[in-house]
Amino acid sequence: MPDALISIVIPCRNEAANLPLLIDEIEATMAGRDFELIIVNDGSTDDTASVLAAQAALRPFPVRELRHRKSAGQSLSVRSGAWAARGSIVATIDGDGQNDPQYIPVLIDALVEAGPDYGAAQGQRLKRRDSKVKQLASRFANWLRNAILHDETRDTGCGLKAVHTDILRKLPFFDGTHRFVPALVIQEGYRVVHCDVIDRSRRHGKSNYGIFDRGLQGVLDLAGVWWLRRRRRRMPKVEEISRG
């Protein structure tokens, strides 16, 4: 497993200025490992497409672009990347540079070392660099989610995750899935390992996925995931019995 292909999925919208340096950092931190980059261009209106074409020609590893004609959001961008992934593990990271790529191998190794009972490794941010309003909103949302879903995760909004590809593809995807990955992985009968990560400031541009436009939707998503967990039994582990 440590030598298996890793698919790094980067959902992004209008992050042309941030992507080259982010890819530089990923190349450095993943040195010696077999990996591919899948950048999901989520309806960008800047130079993201031309930047990715140039990066694909420069890099010694695969740089694949998946393009949404219209923005579909972060969660559905992760879905597109998951179904295109050739690796056995999908690692996700935001395209704005706030997530530090040095934690990608940390998450991957933690997931592998945790064993077959674990389906995902979730990053949990320390020293948040977001505005105070965004931090408070995120803190309340995480408290409410954990109180209802009991997913034992302090920070599900962190873009740094590592998930076994076959498990990620089983999850129900909607506009908001990325904030419920631990609960949904647990629903599938697996456990989640957590890794603390240090957040960084955005280098260029502004956030394309805000908080006030998703507040009510987040409450509806939480109710939906609660209903799903109430109505669906935990998935059984299936073993075929060999008879001669």
Written overview of the protein:
The protein is of the alpha/beta class and 244 residues long. The protein is built from 8 helices and 7 strands; from the N terminus they run E-H-E-H-E-H-E-H-E-H-E-H-H-E-H. Strand 1 (6-12), helix 1 (19-29) and strand 2 form a beta-alpha-beta unit. Helix 5 (132-149) packs parallel to helix 8 (215-231).
Strand and helix layout:
Blueprint: E1 6-12, H1 19-29, E2 35-42, H2 48-58, E3 63-68, H3 74-84, E4 89-92, H4 103-114, E5 118-126, H5 132-149, E6 161-164, H6 165-168, H7 181-187, E7 191-198, H8 215-231
Parallel strand pairs: 1-2, 1-4, 2-3, 5-7
Antiparallel strand pairs: 4-6, 5-6
Helix pairs in contact: 5-8
Shape type: globular
Q: Are there runs of 5+ residues with pLDDT below 50, and where? A: none
Strand order of the largest sheet: 3-2-1-4-6-5-7
SS-derived structural category? alpha/beta
| Rg (C-alpha, Å) | 18 Å
Mean pLDDT: 85
Strand content: 15-25%
Sheet with most strands? 7 strands, mixed
Q: Percent of residues in helical segments?
A: 25-40%
Ends: how far apart?
30 Å
- What is the subunit organization of this protein? single chain
User: Could you tell me the number of beta strands?
Assistant: 7
H/E order of the elements?
EHEHEHEHEHEHHEH
User: Helical stretch count?
Assistant: 8
